[in-house]
Write a structure and sequence with these properties.
The structure holds two protein chains of two kinds. By secondary structure, chain A is of the alpha+beta class. Helix content of chain A is 26%, strand content 21%. In chain B, strand 21 and strand 22 form a beta hairpin. The chains are: A alpha+beta, B alpha+beta. The complex binds adenosine-5'-triphosphate (ATP) and magnesium ion. The site of magnesium ion has 4 residues of chain B, from loops. Chain B: It comes from Lindgomyces ingoldianus.
């Protein structure tokens, strides 16, 4: 899928900010909701193939 | 049929099978879906069979028999398949063969042979005969023996209905590769066009047919479709529009021929009236006026008249309003706002009517695109959406073993976690120091997912902060300045005041920043550079992200573990 284009700029890093290797994990995602995806179309088929062969997106790219 | 289960021997088509009309389509070598015309040249083939002295008539030819031979003409039967007699609504069959009970099934008593005696023919058998005719038309056209199909069904078609249809198709020599739902087929028909771009959007499919209207709200996320809500209505339908015209012309006839009687009170006159009114309705989709002309409408009297489109729109206005209400109801049921809807695909025959499209358009903001013949020059024929989607799906799966198709459509594969909130970054706006959320992955996206964003940096470059958060969509309502002279003291006045204001209030889609997930720093970013953020979210909600300067070296990686597994019973 095409990248999301964001034209508003990112903020400047505050003075004194620090994080291990410049990254700081803060909190996990909220819980997800289980729903049924429609078994239709080329993108679903790619999903089904990955799921059945337990492959990730990047393994699929190769 | 030796090759029935051998994928290499398959000749597969798409079939849409409605109560009113059916269509057949195939996919060309170039991957383009094409709708097939039958021997009569029809692409919308009435789902009707009629028997005259043992001869079987189908489609348009059978439909004209509704005037002379209604008792031996079977129509509007799709929804009866796989149902108990007591749970069907026989109303659409008032002017054709009536459904009767046969053991636990629905059947029709018809004279379908040259013999005098009537036979009880089950709805399954009728369906098989209908599908055989469709299959033959497709085989003739393709010059190959069609033996497999993807068939579209409504979203509320039960397993019992599907299994009955599967059996009936098999009897007709058709191996059903897959049933797909009608609204999803319509979305696929649009997405399969070469110019279509895969995107994240919420789509509504409004399928306005002859005997029923069905609306589905669908989250389309990178080409993966999730149905968020559906509504079905058997009162709001094309029949109702026909009825408006029938009443109109019947009254005109009575006015003109005082002694002619009411054509609605005689079966044959009524059938003629109905057929002609459907034709008038279709003509009014293209022309601004249409002619009604029936020989010997009642008591041997011919009748011709004209109606213009605006008169029709006025007479049927409450039905157009009902279509619009049905669509907004489906959006509410999905707990969404009209502002969330990017596109409304109008499907089903009545979507040709310009007023149908404009009534729905008026219930939505300008940001919602209405895909209908009268509102969009690139709209696909609403009658053909389902069958085109089915033909495309057929071409995608026709080489698979049936067992593989079944496995892929199993809940083990189709039930997936969906994000409850959008995930994105905080950006800076012109004047505010607080951040503005920008979504990268939308809520209701199926997991796992991978998305990339390209984000602007401060004017001077330097060190930047990338804050990943959850966001929830918020509808901001701005009320216009209250008029100062109006004093409000009683409750009654208050209500009036609010409703007057309603039209003028400004509604916008904004974001509320939710939980912060992570922070990352990119240092020494070049002036004018852009930052690429790649987010991978796994099915267990682990997040893996990469932040880097576009065209730059290195970058920062981050890992986030998923939330703790919820304990059963704990709050
Ligand atoms: N060009 C047109 N303009 C207006 N109405 C049309 C047009 N073409 C078809 N219709 C109407 O659309 C309806 C049929 O819709 P559709 O072909 O989607 O049928 P269907 O799916 O078999 O319907 P259902 O199962 O609801 O009975 C009929 O009421 C028909 O009169
Ligand atoms: Mg339909």
């Amino acid at each position: 899928m095409a990248s999301v284009q964001v034209s508003l700029p990112l903020p400047v890093l505050p003075e004194g900010w620090s994080g291990e290797r410049d990254f700081k994990a803060i909190g996990p995602l909220s819980h997800a909701t289980d729903r049924n995806i429609e078994p239709v179309g080329p993108h679903f088929l790619a999903h089904a193939r990955r799921k059945r062969h337990k492959r990730t997106f990047s393994e699929d790219d190769r | 049929m030796s090759g029935e289960n051998d994928p290499a021997q398959r000749v597969a088509i798409g079939i849409s099978f409605g109560n009113s009309y059916s269509s057949i389509a195939f996919t060309t070598g170039e991957g383009k879906a094409e709708v097939i015309a039958n021997e009569d040249g029809d692409r919308q083939i009435p789902s009707i069979l009629s028997y005259v002295e043992g001869e079987e008539l189908h489609g348009g030819q059978a439909k004209s028999q509704l005037v002379r031979n209604a008792k031996n003409t079977v129509a509007y039967f799709r929804d009866f398949l796989g149902q108990a007699f007591k749970s069907i609504d026989p109303t659409p069959c008032h002017q054709s063969a009536h459904p009767v009970q046969a053991a636990s099934n629905v059947a029709f008593k018809i004279r379908d042979t040259a013999e005098e005696a009537e036979n009880t023919v089950t709805v399954s058998e009728i369906t098989t005969r209908h599908l055989k005719r469709l299959r033959n038309s497709a085989s003739d056209y393709l010059g190959k023996d069609v033996n497999a199909a993807v068939i579209t069904v409504p979203t509320n078609f039960s397993d019992a209905q599907k299994s009955a249809l599967n059996k009936a198709a098999k009897e007709a020599g058709i191996e059903v590769l897959q049933f797909i739902s009608e609204p999803v087929a319509a979305v696929l028909a649009y997405d399969a066009r070469p110019e279509a771009k895969v995107a994240d959007k919420i789509i509504v499919v409004a399928d306005l047919g002859g005997t029923r209207s069905d609306v589905a709200v669908i989250a389309s996320r990178g080409g993966i479709y999730t149905v968020l809500s559906t509504v079905h209505d058997y009162e709001v339908s094309g029949f109702k529009l026909d009825q408006v015209l029938m009443d109109h012309f019947a009254k005109e006839f009575i006015k003109k021929h005082k002694a002619g009687g009411d054509p609605r009170e005689n079966d044959r006159s009524l059938a003629k009236l109905k057929l002609e009114c459907e034709a008038v309705k279709k003509a009014l989709s293209i022309g601004t006026s249409a002619n009604f002309s029936v020989e010997s409408l009642a008591n041997g009297l011919d009748f011709t008249a004209t109606i213009n489109r605006s008169r029709y729109e006025l007479l049927a206005s409450k039905h157009f309003a009902a279509f619009a209400r049905l669509v907004t109801h489906a959006v509410e049921k999905a707990q969404l706002d009209p502002l969330d809807i990017s596109e409304i695909i109008l499907a089903g025959g009545n979507s040709h009517t310009p007023k149908t499209a404009s009534a729905i358009q008026n219930a939505f903001p300008e940001t919602t695109t209405i895909l209908a013949p009268s509102t969009s020059p690139t709209a696909i024929n609403p009658n053909e959406l389902s069958v085109r989607g089915a033909a495309i799906q057929a071409s995608l799966i026709q080489e698979f073993e049936l067992e593989d198709i079944d496995q892929s459509t199993h809940p083990m594969v189709t039930v997936t976690p969906h994000l409850s909130h959008a995930v994105g970054v905080l950006c800076i706006s012109g004047d505010e120091s607080s951040g503005i959320f920008h979504a990268i992955v939308d809520a209701e996206t199926s997991l796992p997912v991978r998305r990339t964003a390209i984000i602007a940096t401060p004017r001077e470059g330097g060190n930047v902060l990338i804050k990943l958060c959850e966001g929830s969509r918020h509808i901001k309502v701005t009320k216009p300045e209250p008029k100062p002279k109006q004093e409000r003291d009683s409750d009654d006045d208050d209500d009036d005041y609010d409703s007057e204001d309603e039209e003028e209030e400004l509604r916008e889609k904004t974001w509320k920043v939710g939980k912060v997930l992570s922070e990352a720093a990119l240092r020494g970013v070049k002036k004018g550079a852009k930052i690429e953020v790649q987010i991978n979210i796994a099915a267990d909600l682990k997040v893996n992200c990469i932040f880097r300067e576009v065209g730059g070296k290195g970058g920062v990686r981050g890992l986030l573990s998923g939330p703790k597994v919820q304990q059963n019973g704990s709050a």
